[in-house]
Amino acid sequence: MQRAKGTDRILDILEHLENEQRPVSRNALAKALDCPRSTIYSLVDQLVVRGWLTLDDDGGISLGHRAGLLGLAYSRSARFEQVAREVVQRVAVETGVVTEINVADNWQQLVLITATGRSRNYLRTVEGSRYPFPITGSARLQLVDVPHDLIRRNIPEEDFRLGSGELMPFDQFCDEIDQAARDGYFIARGLIERYVGTAGTPISNRNGQCVATLSIILPQADLDAREDELIDILRRGAEELSGYLRAAVWPMGDRAHSHLFRDRDA
Predict the structure, then answer these.
(1) Under CATH, which architecture does the 2-68 domain have?
(2) DSSP codes of every residue in 111-172
(3) Could you tell me if 19 and 34 are in contact, meaning their C-beta atoms sit under 8 angstroms apart?
(4) Residue spans per domain, the chain
(5) What is the CATH number of domain 78-261?
(6) Fold match flag (2-68 vs 78-261)
(7) Tens digit of pLDDT for each residue in 65-102?
(8) Residue 97 DSSP SS3
(9) Is 34 helix (H, G, I), strand (E, B) or coil?
(10) pTM for this predicted structure
(11) Which residues of the chain have pLDDT under 70?
């Protein structure tokens, strides 16, 4: 029994650091995991020796090179991600703008795959980045069919603050989800920054559920000028990936969708 508890603690540490954007101290880690500091110190030391964690000069803890190697090993064996990366790269070339595949992760938007076209340098995203749901157009597609009371309960009010500083009304957010369901795509303007637009289309599994989105980010003026063309390119890419998933299983996507019908992890 004690061994299982130790294993759980190790997994808790790794999973917590996966969501951190910067190194954390041992004390902060112990507090976040509600774990005795002596246990955290011991486990962190073991994980550092094995290369799963690394310490900076100030004692900050972050994931080590072994965690990165594990991710590479997963990528080699994950056939859908390989196909998806090819589609994202092609769409980025066709559109000339930043292209992403996004999935839901603990009631946030996770950038899973990204490629940069010929767009301006400031419009770039990083794989593994997470964003509040309401400031992403993709959320409108992923939350189709999710009960509104569940959405309200799991998205903090502060997450509705847009790049302009204004708070988006919850009812407006729900109306936009309903609009995305009717249109089969969603275009957002000014959510992240005032003059930045996004467009997205759903990637569906064999059951017709949106398990991810194929989306682009670009200056709003360019989106306005090329809207029909860009939506057509996105639809073709998303349909190619949805067709693949009609004959294959993608555990990450199915998990992302199913977890939207559960409450957010503490």
Answers:
(1) Orthogonal Bundle (1.10)
(2) EEEEE--S--TTS---TT-EEEGGG-THHHHHTTTS-HHHHHHHS-GGGGB-TTSPBPPHHH
(3) no
(4) 2-68, 78-261
(5) 3.30.450.40
(6) no
(7) 898 888 777 666 568 888 999 999 999 999 999 999 99
(8) coil
(9) coil
(10) 0.75
(11) 1-4, 74-78, 119-123, 266
